[in-house]
Amino acid sequence: MGTFHARAVLALASALLFIGCSGEESPGSSGTSGDPSGGQGSKPGESTSGGPSGTTPSPPTNVDDGPAAGNPAGKCVVPAEAQAESIASPKTVVGTGTPASCTGDAFVAAVAQGGVITFDCGPAPATITLTATAKVFNDKGPVVIDGGGKVTLSGGGKVRVLYMNACDPANGGYASGVPGNCNEQVTPKLTVQNITFADGSVKLGNVEGGGGGAMYVRGGRTKIVNARFFHNECDASGSDVGGGAVRVLDFPQGGSMSRPVFVVNSTFGGKAGYGNTCANGGALSSIGTSWSIYNSVFTDNRATGTGANAGDGGNGGAIYNDGNTIALNLCGTLMESNRANEGGSAIFFVSNDRSGTIALADSTLRNNPKGTFETPGFPGLYVLAKTPPQVTGSTTIE
């Protein structure tokens, strides 16, 4: 094991006792499984401006002033399957060389057709503000969205940006053709790379299909490479809603460790005023999903709910993971100044049957202040798993 600095390191036996005696997801938890709907869940609709509470959306974020994608101090080797996809033969090029030609409608139409999507919005950075959510259709093959490092997709504080759901028959039929198996499918496949998502907003209430202000994904495979997520949001309260930036639901019967969501060289927040917010998982939220995260940054994200799982959320300031045989692996990643009103200001990780694992390598977690509860000896983390967090390399937790 490498260097491990903790603000308060308690005896390992004490940490194990804390984990083993809980028997619930979190203090005050209802004790429900990671799939309260029995595998089907709600069928999300589109967001409405301001949501059920009628709140006024925040002004758009100035993405030009935002931090770069990724952690420059992160040196972890990225596996081939997690790297960017080729864009040598795009199916659709959005735009004809000017910012005005890069419209939200053109982008939505391109995503509906599938394939590799690139942009020609002129030489300067361009922001495309959507008035409707772009949907990946199950029968259109893999989708690769590449912004060339110059394109921002904005929800304008009113709509979710991107939606993919292998279990939604309205999205071109079930991916497998068999509704009961839709969660098991490896299609459709979605990659977003070299792009920024800003001001995505979805307010559907406390429902499983809620969350994911920038991206909502159920089933299939997903990869995020060289991307930035600024000021995306979902409902501020609710135990069954999460993912201000990205929400992923998987529910594989045999576990998801062999097919993680890859996040590579990406930034969620990055500085004050740019963080993502939701009731749970200010940046990322998932059920039944594994994640492999490389050389990325999570700062200034917040879980805004209260009361934990028995109330209205507030778990996982940056990352919320719930399920059974799931894995969260962080390598070369910085997590700083994330906040949760309840558990796990940096990470909330609960494996209900204690078969899941969490590993931190060559990463830095600091100044993620304790909410109501956290795992002793691991500041900013709340973990119920097969073992305590596995910490290696030059990881610092303080």
Explain this structure.
Strand 1 (92-94), helix 2 (104-113) and strand 2 (115-119) form a beta-alpha-beta unit. This protein has one domain (12-25, 62-89, 148-397). 5% of the residues lie in helices and 30% in strands. The longest helix is centred in the N-terminal third of the chain and has 10 residues, at 104-113. It has helices at residues 12-20, 104-113; strands spanning 92-94, 115-119, 126-129, 134-136, 143-146, 151-154, 162-165, 189-198, 201-202, 215-218, 221-230, 233-234, 246-249, 261-264, 267-269, 277-278, 284-287, 291-294, 297-299, 302-303, 319-323, 327-331, 334-336, 339-340, 347-351, 357-361, 364-366, 381-384, 390-392, 396-397. By secondary structure, it is mostly beta strands. The protein has a 17-stranded parallel β-sheet that branches. The chain has an 8-stranded parallel β-sheet with strand order 4-7-10-13-17-21-25-28. It has a 3-stranded parallel β-sheet with strand order 16-20-24, with no helix packed on it. It has 2 helices and 30 strands.
